[in-house]
Automatic annotation (TrEMBL):
Pfam families: HSP70. Signal peptide: none annotated. One of its GO terms (molecular function) is ATP-dependent protein folding chaperone. Belongs to the heat shock protein 70 family. This is Chaperone protein DnaK. PANTHER family: HEAT SHOCK PROTEIN 70KDA. Keywords: ATP-binding, Nucleotide-binding. InterPro entries: ATPase_NBD (IPR043129), Heat_shock_70_CS (IPR018181), Hsp_70_fam (IPR013126), YegD-like (IPR042054). The keyword Isomerase does not apply. It comes from the Bacteria.
Length: 415
């Protein structure tokens, strides 16, 4: 049996182990070192995870897709149940099934069992709620123990990323670690050096930790509400002109973790009633068709793809042909920034708090180390670099740095 580092992320998951004295991520889906944090339940079949789960959903296989599982930790949702075929499962049990499948794949690939884990965790699972934060970690610990880990400990994700970055550091420096993932944005200010890297105890080197519950899925949600949901009726008037169509359906449909809430007969009846009183019933027809066919995740996938495309190339087309032939929207960096700029500002504000906590000015930061998929958003990166304009910007492994750092920490704790 061996120790591992497990980065269970909102969007992607990695698991690492020490091999020949070096941390190494274990392939979890074919040659891929990451596996998307998604699980698909088909009637009468074993659940499938990762890319295969999303592919099954896109191909129209009957069943239910669940993504962004981590986002329910720290909320009341984690103990709620959801219908999956003929059974109802608590969300915590869905997470357990997903992580059990990840653990089994890693053990098969590594040729050994894992009984000790250092779990990554955000600085705050829940903003401004210490009790909710404690409950989230306790839940994740209980899940880890339920799937066969006998020893479970935790490390902040930005600290783990710092341990990965420190492997390349050649002299002492103070680094701001920014981990902008799918569900949270986390920051650490850490003193690093080759000599310090060898120490088992690093508490004195950690100058500050802070975070905010904003991540890639929030950018998806804001982009969806601003660009897609108006095409389905959001903000449109009722026949009684002083009222707008109820917006709760659209917010659920734009939020990865809430989409499955809509898939029930009661919601469909309510949408039908709304259509009868809507001034533009043809828009509500689109909403009804998406919910009835359980294609909400298809919308979310399209929005996520447009967000990434606009970030990478400057512009993208949001193709909604599966909702209605010819339906779509254009997204470019300007519109992406307009729809989600407030989120980037809130992330940058948290950097300021982290600097204040450390008791140092921005000029003292030697390096800004970036990891997490949402650091690829140009306006997020610009907001971060503006906070520490004199720092050297270092791009880490977008999806692997935290997992590698957790593996380094696992080896230390298991020594």
């Amino acid at each position: 049996m061996a120790a591992c580092g497990l980065d269970f992320g909102t969007s992607n998951t990695t698991l690492g182990r020490t091999r020949d004295g070096r941390p190494a991520l274990v392939p979890l889906e074919g040659r891929h070192l990451t596996v998307p944090s998604a699980i698909f339940f088909a009637p009468g079949a074993t659940p499938i995870i990762g890319r295969a789960a999303t592919e099954a959903y896109v191909e129209g296989v009957p069943g239910r897709l669940m993504r962004s599982l981590k986002s329910v930790l720290g909320s009341g949702l984690v103990e709620e149940t959801t219908p999956l075929g003929r059974e109802r499962l608590r969300f915590r049990d869905v997470i357990a099934r997903y992580l059990a499948a990840v653990k089994a794949r890693a053990e098969q690939e590594a040729g050994t069992g894992f009984d000790t884990v250092v779990h990554g965790r955000p600085v705050h699972f829940v903003d401004g709620d210490p009790e909710g934060d404690r409950k989230a970690e306790t839940t994740l610990r209980e899940i880890a123990e339920s799937i066969g880990f006998r020893t479970v400990s935790f490390q902040y994700e930005p600290i783990a990323a710092a341990l990965d970055y420190e492997q390349s550091v050649r002299s002492e420096e103070i680094a701001l670690i920014a981990d902008i993932g799918g569900g949270t944005s986390d920051f650490s200010i850490v003193r690093l050096s080759p000599e310090r890297h060898a120490r088992a105890e690093r508490a004195d080197d950690i100058l500050a930790n802070d975070g905010v519950r904003i991540g890639g899925t929030d950018f998806d949600r804001m982009l969806s509400l601003g660009t897609v949901m108006p095409l389905l009726g959001l903000g449109s008037p009722m026949k009684r002109g002083d009222l707008a169509v109820p917006n709760a359906y659209f917010h659920d449909l734009a939020t990865w973790s809430s989409i499955n809430r809509l898939y029930n007969p009661k919601t469909l009846r309510e949408i039908e009633e709304t259509r009868r009183d809507a001034a533009r019933p043809e828009l509500i027809d689109r909403l009804y068709s998406v919910v009835e066919a359980e294609r909400g995740h298809g919308l979310a996938i399209a929005v996520e793809g447009a967000k990434i495309g606009a970030s990478d190339t400057g512009a993208a087309t949001l193709d909604l042909d599966f909702v209605e032939r010819g339906l779509g929207a254009a997204v470019d960096r300007g519109s992406l920034g307009a729809q989600t700029g407030s989120l980037a500002e809130r992330i940058a504000e948290r950097v300021g708090r982290c600097l204040a906590q450390a008791g140092i000015g921005a000029e003292r930061i030697d390096a800004l180390f970036l990891t997490g998929g949402s650091t690829g958003l140009p306006h997020v990166r610009a907001a971060l670099t503006a906070c520490v304009p004199g720092a050297r910007v270092v791009a880490g492994d977008t999806f692997g740095s935290v997992g590698v750092g957790l593996t380094i920490e696992a080896a230390r704790r298991d020594a």
